[in-house]
Amino acid sequence: MLFIFNLRKQGEVGVTVQERFEYDSQNRLVKHYHQVDNNPEELLAENTYNDLSQLVNKKVGSTSGSAPLQSIDYDYNIRGWMTEINKNQMAATDLGGKLFSYKIKYTSREGIENPDTAQFSGKNVVPKYNGNIAEVDWRAVESIGANPSTTPKRYGYAYDKINRLTAGFYQNPQNPNSKENTESLAYDL
């Protein structure tokens, strides 16, 4: 499939952008190409899927025949819920050329339950078994050439009895109870 866009401002020379997409026999996006004017076409993304049609790897950015700028791996649990992105880098001392690592926890909690039980009464981070996310951990490159701390950053989520999000607690690795970037929600119904 090919899309062509002609972009220009009034009084300026136009720019032609071509987007080309390749799909497999199951109509899943396999490759996405991008070309500006007469410059060489570049492969923006190449996707790989498992037998359940879940995205398991995405290679991002390259010119034809060269190594991708980034290779992103995805993992899922038996229910089909995404659980990790670049999981092998979560505990590694460096991210191995990856920009980030991400872990989604549904049925477990490793961080604090509540940073301030007086201020956030009843808004506790607890394991969930219904698809709600209890906690997420991540590590990310914060400056080029520097590896992030091996201690992941963490966000925990609290829900009410009808599964509405009621709070989100950022847990600073140096001080999980700091209450920075903490949000509390209330509903009128």
Automatic annotation (TrEMBL):
Region (Disordered): 169-189
Biased composition range(s): Polar residues: 169-179
Protein name: YD repeat-containing protein
